[in-house]
Amino acid sequence: MTIQDTFTAVDPVRPPAGYIGGKRRLAERLVARIAAVPHTTYAEVFVGMGGVFFRRRSRPRAEVINDRSGDVANLFRILQRHYPQLMDTLRFQITSRREFERLKASDPATLTDLERAGRFLYLQRLAFGGKVAGRNFGVDPRSSGGFNLTTLEPMLAEIHERLAGVVVEQLDWSAFIDRYDRPGTLFYLDPPYFGSEGDYGKELFGRDQFEAIAARLRTLQGRFILSINDVPEIRAAFAGFDMQEVALHYTVAGGKGQPAKELIIAG
Question: Which CATH architecture has domain 3-266?
């Protein structure tokens, strides 16, 4: 029996909201790479909205998701543990520019965990391009409002069920890796793109961290897969690891597609 034979099949689910840097176009390729690596623990270092995590079709014995963002970690904890109460909080929300601006201006530190989760979900569902820093209200005249509880509720119910048994952390990437690094752990890392480090909040990630990540991965007891934009600085930092170049086209809000290159780095 191989380790993969101990995996449990799961149905892919949609992430709860858009997120800048989400891996929708790369997800299927990443999911296949992850499934091919024997592991007993799956650990996502920068989970975001779970664009890869939720699209996987099998799970090992242990799963851990992490994000330095308190909004992200709080949302998944609430979806996991207090799903009915969150639905009550969202019950009468509608798609509204005024409500978007009101919640955007509110300080999450003054809210309860339930209110904070509802605020973050609402803003991410309606933010143009899934932005976190510098959000703007996004409108697509060709579709219905982005916050429609009739369609959102069954999707969130699926996420609630999928999160059963998943450990949710809110740690710096290095502390997270140190805590879970052991033979049998597979880490998936999706750090901010090189050149876009401030898109998630200036205090969360700096450009100097790429070299630090590469250095830590060279001493890893487990295995890793990392996805990042293809630029010379990244190739230099991660030299010596297996690198697969992937050509993609990205579009935002129906605009013209822009060619882009990404790297899948593994070790």
Answer: 3-Layer(aba) Sandwich (3.40)
